[in-house]
């Protein structure tokens, strides 16, 4: 079995492009990972997700452990087979969603006990159990079990939480064991405190991981504060391993993160927004539910190669979205995922060519221009 490796091909400023190799296929970086929460990227067939250009999906430990359960997925051949996606899958550790979704949580040194948001049943997650679940799922990139306070939080709380997460990172590494071809990523914490981020990075380096995530951002601090943190956090992490920014974000968040040395990202935004009629385009956000599209025969984004833009008018997308037809969710999700993947491909090319500065100027200029004029 081949190993998990990261090869950096080019760097332009702090932005990097390269390839992560896994036994299940290559991941071109910077990479955007569509979110397949409950073993599906909602409204998309796996083959269609691949057609948008995605090399890897994200699955959620919290959701899958509750329903249909990791043991059931393992008995059915693992998550790849279960959901018919043969390429790499990254799973989160469950920690973040226990904190944001579950009811009645209790946090101890050992781990977290909580009540399911589905049926109120009681569950426990520890670093060891999170590693066991992610192994049962057959995840290619496993995330350490961590804890992260919502921001703003006081420095004492952030420091305490970061130190607990570092002890859990060490336990995660032991529990993960030796699994050739599978990777374990550590997660840096420390809020917006540069010295706590540095301490966290140092603790993770000492344990040693296959990749490193910048955790605890995109939790309400705003873009300016997030970019402020990304001005130092990625560079505190090992230069020769992939760096993953969790749960980000809007297109301009993603571009700003890549410019600051991030290699991987995930977000529900393109798929979730698609289902509510919001499209991301080269000229900014378009709300297809708006009455101005009622009679518009033009494509959503004429530069886009997705089926929604190639085969349908704005008037049709408006109609099926307003009528809550299932195809509305399908086409709008496809478009948004394609837009995000085109964005990543554009950045990879520009970084490789050493023209990322001018690419970024064109990106911002296109968005500032706004949507095409109504007919
Ligand atoms: Zn499109």
TrEMBL record:
Pfam family, one: TGT
Residues in tRNA-guanine(15) transglycosylase-like domain copies: 14-367
Residues annotated as catalytic: 92, 266
Cofactor binding, per record: Binds 1 zinc ion per subunit.
One term of GO molecular function: tRNA-guanosine(34) queuine transglycosylase activity
Record: residues binding Zn(2+): 304, 306, 309, 335
GO biological process: tRNA queuosine(34) biosynthetic process
EC number in record: 2.4.2.29
Stretch list, region RNA binding: 247-253
Cofactor requirements of the protein: Zn(2+)
Assembly behavior: Homodimer. Within each dimer, one monomer is responsible for RNA recognition and catalysis, while the other monomer binds to the replacement base PreQ1.
Family as reported in the entry's similarity comment: Belongs to the queuine tRNA-ribosyltransferase family.
Annotated function: Catalyzes the base-exchange of a guanine (G) residue with the queuine precursor 7-aminomethyl-7-deazaguanine (PreQ1) at position 34 (anticodon wobble position) in tRNAs with GU(N) anticodons (tRNA-Asp, -Asn, -His and -Tyr). Catalysis occurs through a double-displacement mechanism. The nucleophile active site attacks the C1' of nucleotide 34 to detach the guanine base from the RNA, forming a covalent enzyme-RNA intermediate. The proton acceptor active site deprotonates the incoming PreQ1, allowing a nucleophilic attack on the C1' of the ribose to form the product.
Protein name: Queuine tRNA-ribosyltransferase
Organism, as annotated: Sulfitobacter albidus
């Amino acid at each position: 079995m081949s190993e998990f490796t990261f090869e950096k091909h080019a760097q332009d400023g702090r932005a990097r492009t390269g390839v992560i190799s896994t036994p299940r296929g290559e991941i071109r970086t910077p990479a955007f990972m569509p979110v397949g929460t409950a073993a599906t990227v909602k409204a998309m067939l796996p083959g269609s997700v691949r057609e948008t250009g995605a090399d890897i999906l994200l699955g959620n430990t919290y959701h899958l452990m509750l329903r249909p359960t990791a043991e059931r997925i393992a008995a059915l051949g693992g998550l790849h087979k279960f959901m018919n996606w043969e390429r790499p899958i990254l799973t989160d550790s469950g920690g973040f969603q226990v904190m944001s979704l579950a009811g009645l949580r209790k946090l101890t040194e050992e781990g977290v006990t909580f009540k399911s948001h589905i049926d109120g049943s009681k569950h426990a997650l520890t670093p060891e159990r999170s590693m066991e679940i992610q192994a049962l799922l057959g995840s290619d990139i496993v995330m350490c079990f961590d804890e992260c306070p919502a921001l703003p939080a006081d420095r004492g709380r952030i420091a305490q939480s970061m130190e607990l997460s570092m002890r859990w990172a060490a336990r995660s590494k032991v529990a993960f064991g030796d699994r050739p071809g599978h990777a374990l990523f550590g997660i840096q914490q420390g809020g917006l405190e540069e010295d706590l981020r540095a301490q966290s990075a140092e603790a993770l380096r000492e344990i040693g991981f296959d990749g490193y995530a910048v955790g605890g951002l995109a939790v309400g601090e705003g873009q300016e504060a997030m970019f402020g943190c990304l001005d130092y956090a990625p560079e505190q992490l090992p230069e020769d391993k992939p760096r993953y920014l969790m749960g980000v974000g809007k297109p301009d968040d993603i571009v700003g993160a890549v410019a600051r040395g991030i290699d991987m990202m995930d977000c529900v935004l393109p798929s979730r927004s698609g289902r509510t009629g919001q499209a991301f385009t080269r000229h900014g956000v378009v709300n297809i539910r708006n009455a101005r599209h009622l009679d518009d025969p033009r494509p959503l984004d004429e530069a886009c190669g997705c089926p929604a833009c190639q085969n349908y008018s704005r008037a049709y997308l408006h109609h099926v979205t307003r009528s809550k037809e299932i195809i509305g969710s399908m086409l709008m999700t496809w478009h948004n995922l394609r837009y995000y993947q085109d964005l990543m491909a554009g950045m990879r090319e520009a970084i490789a060519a050493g023209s990322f500065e001018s690419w970024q100027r064109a990106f911002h200029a296109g968005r500032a221009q706004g949507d095409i004029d109504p007919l």
